[in-house]
Write a structure and sequence with these properties.
Layout: E1 2-6, E2 19-23, E3 29-42, E4 60-73, E5 79-91, E6 116-129, E7 134-137, E8 146-149, E9 151-160, H1 182-185, E10 200-209, E11 212-220, E12 238-250, E13 253-266, H2 271-281, E14 295-307, E15 312-321, E16 335-345, E17 350-363, H3 366-373, E18 391-403, E19 406-416, E20 427-437
Antiparallel strand pairs: 1-2, 3-4, 3-20, 4-5, 5-6, 6-9, 7-8, 9-10, 10-11, 11-12, 12-13, 13-14, 14-15, 15-16, 16-17, 17-18, 18-19, 19-20
Helix pairs in contact: 2-3
C-alpha cells in the first residue's frame, strides 16, 4: 500500500509527531471462514410451578455449532457480491422455551442434532462515491478492502440478516466473539424480520455524510411466526426500519450513537383479541385462535458505544416495542435496557484476549402480561400463570486467545425471574465457546 505522510503540529510537544494515512489497494475478491462451538450447562433452580413453555427446572446441557464461509467478489467498480454457505446443528435448552433473553445467540429456532447445510447470505452491495474525504474499508467477512468516500450512497440487496446492516455495536453485537445472550447481541425489543435461522430477503439504502449515517431498509417476514418459510409479498407483509447514526469523540476517544425505529406488518395475533375471545367463551386465551388479519407492530431503540481508552469500551442500549401483538420473528421482549463494558487484555500482557461484563433488564407490555397471567402461551414463554417481575440477565465472559486464529471463551450468565416470573429462578448457565476465524 502507498503511504501518504502527514505532519500534524501539536502545541506544546517537545518532539514532532508523525502520522500516516494509508491509501488501500482494491481487493477484487476474498474468502473468509469461521466456526463456533458453544457448550452450555444449566444448573437446577427452584420453581414453584412449571407450564408448557417453561424453562426446565432440572439440570440441562445444550450445544450449538456453526461453520460459515464468506466469499466475496467485486464484479465492477463500486460493486460487491457476497455468498455465505453455512452449516449448523445444535440442541437448545428446554427446546428453546422459558426465557425472554435466551442464553445462546448462536442457537437458531430451526436447530437440530443433524448437521444442516444451507445458504445464509447471497447479496449485492453497490457504493456510489459523492466526494469528500476518503477512508479505508478493511478486509473482513463480507467486506472487501478498498478506499471509499466519507460521503457516499450504499445500496445492499438480497439474502442477509437485518443485523448485518442495522443496530451495529463495536462491543455487543456478535455472539460468536462477544456476549452470548439474545438481549445483548441486539435490542431486546427489536422484533426484526427474519426466518427461523435469523436471515431474510430485502433491501437497504445508506447515506454516509462525514460523521452522520442514515439507513433505511425493508425485509420480508416469515409466513408464520418464528418459522423458516418466508413470505415473498414484500409490499404486503414486511419489516421496515430507519436508523440515524452519529460518530463523535469524547476526550479524544471515538464513539457512536444510533437511533432506530422499526415497523412490522404481518398476519399477527393481538393479545387483547385473544383475551376478549377467552372472556366470551370461558376458555384460556390462545393467540393461535385469533390470527386472522394483518396487524402493525412498531418500536424504537437507542444504541451507544463509547471507547474510554484504546483497551476499554462501554456500550448501552434501550428499546421499546408496543407489545400489542405476538412476537413474530425474534423473542418475547417488549422493553429492554442493557449496558456493559469490554476490556482488551493489553494491560496484563494478553493483547488478543478480551473480557466483558453486561447487564440486561427485559420487560413485557401490560396486555402481554395479562395474556400470560390468564394462562396463555406465547411462542417461547408461558408458565401457566405469572407473578410478573422484569427479567434480568447478568453475563460475564473471558476470551482466551490460543493461536493466531483460535479462541476459547468461558462465559457465565445469571438470570433472575426467567420468563418474567418471580416464582421461578434464579437460573445459572455456564458456557464454553470455541471459535476460529481466518
Amino acid at each position: 500500500m502507498a503511504l501518504i505522510q502527514c505532519l500534524p503540529a501539536l502545541v506544546g510537544s517537545l518532539l514532532p509527531a508523525f502520522c500516516f494515512a494509508e491509501v488501500a489497494e482494491t481487493e477484487d475478491w476474498n474468502a473468509k471462514f469461521q466456526a463456533t462451538y458453544v457448550w452450555q450447562d444449566k444448573r437446577p433452580f427452584p420453581a414453584a410451578y412449571s407450564g408448557t413453555n417453561s424453562l426446565s427446572a432440572g439440570k440441562e446441557h445444550s450445544y450449538s455449532f456453526t461453520a460459515t464461509a464468506a466469499l466475496g467478489f467485486r464484479p465492477w467498480a463500486g460493486g460487491e457480491l457476497y455468498f455465505n454457505p453455512e452449516a449448523a446443528q445444535g440442541v437448545p435448552l428446554s427446546n428453546l422455551t422459558g426465557l425472554g433473553g435466551f442464553t445462546n445467540g448462536e442457537i437458531a429456532r430451526s436447530s437440530g442434532p443433524t448437521l444442516t447445510v444451507y445458504r445464509a447470505r447471497l447479496f449485492l452491495r453497490q457504493t456510489w462515491g459523492m466526494s469528500g474525504e476518503q477512508e479505508i474499508v478493511e478486509s473482513a467477512a463480507n467486506q472487501l478492502v478498498g478506499t471509499v468516500d466519507k460521503r457516499r450512497w450504499v445500496l445492499t440487496a438480497g439474502n442477509l440478516s437485518v443485523l448485518d446492516v442495522f443496530d451495529g455495536n463495536a462491543y455487543s453485537h456478535d455472539p460468536r466473539t462477544q456476549f452470548l445472550n439474545w438481549s445483548l447481541m441486539t435490542h431486546g425489543a427489536y422484533d426484526y424480520a427474519a426466518d427461523a435461522r435469523g436471515y431474510s430477503w430485502g433491501i437497504a439504502l445508506e447515506w454516509y455524510h462525514d460523521d452522520w449515517t442514515v439507513r433505511a431498509g425493508r425485509f420480508i417476514q416469515p409466513k408464520e411466526p418464528n418459522q423458516q418459510a418466508l413470505d415473498p409479498h414484500i409490499f404486503q407483509h414486511y419489516g421496515d426500519q430507519l436508523e440515524v447514526e452519529h460518530a463523535h469523540t469524547i476526550g479524544g476517544q471515538p464513539g457512536k450513537l444510533r437511533v432506530l425505529a422499526f415497523r412490522n406488518r404481518a398476519k399477527m395475533s393481538s393479545f387483547q383479541d385473544a383475551l376478549n375471545l377467552a372472556a366470551r367463551t370461558g376458555g384460556t386465551p390462545d393467540i393461535n385462535d385469533v390470527r386472522t388479519g394483518e396487524q402493525v407492530k412498531h418500536g424504537f431503540g437507542l444504541n451507544l458505544e463509547q471507547a474510554m481508552s484504546n483497551n476499554v469500551g462501554l456500550f448501552a442500549r434501550a428499546s421499546w416495542a408496543d407489545g400489542r401483538t405476538e412476537t413474530y420473528a425474534f423473542t418475547e421482549i417488549d422493553r429492554s435496557m442493557s449496558g456493559g463494558a469490554v476490556v482488551r487484555g493489553t494491560s496484563w500482557g494478553r493483547e488478543q484476549d478480551s473480557m466483558g461484563v453486561a447487564l440486561a433488564r427485559n420487560g413485557l407490555s401490560k396486555v402481554h402480561r395479562n395474556y400470560l397471567a390468564a394462562g396463555g402461551m406465547g411462542f417461547f414463554i408461558g408458565d401457566g400463570r405469572l407473578n410478573y417481575r422484569p427479567e434480568t440477565v447478568f453475563e460475564a465472559f473471558y476470551n482466551l486467545n490460543l493461536t493466531k486464529a483460535a479462541w476459547v471463551s468461558l462465559d457465565w450468565q445469571r438470570i433472575r425471574n426467567p420468563a418474567y416470573n418471580a416464582d421461578r429462578g434464579p437460573v445459572n448457565v455456564a458456557s464454553v465457546r470455541l471459535h476460529t476465524e481466518f
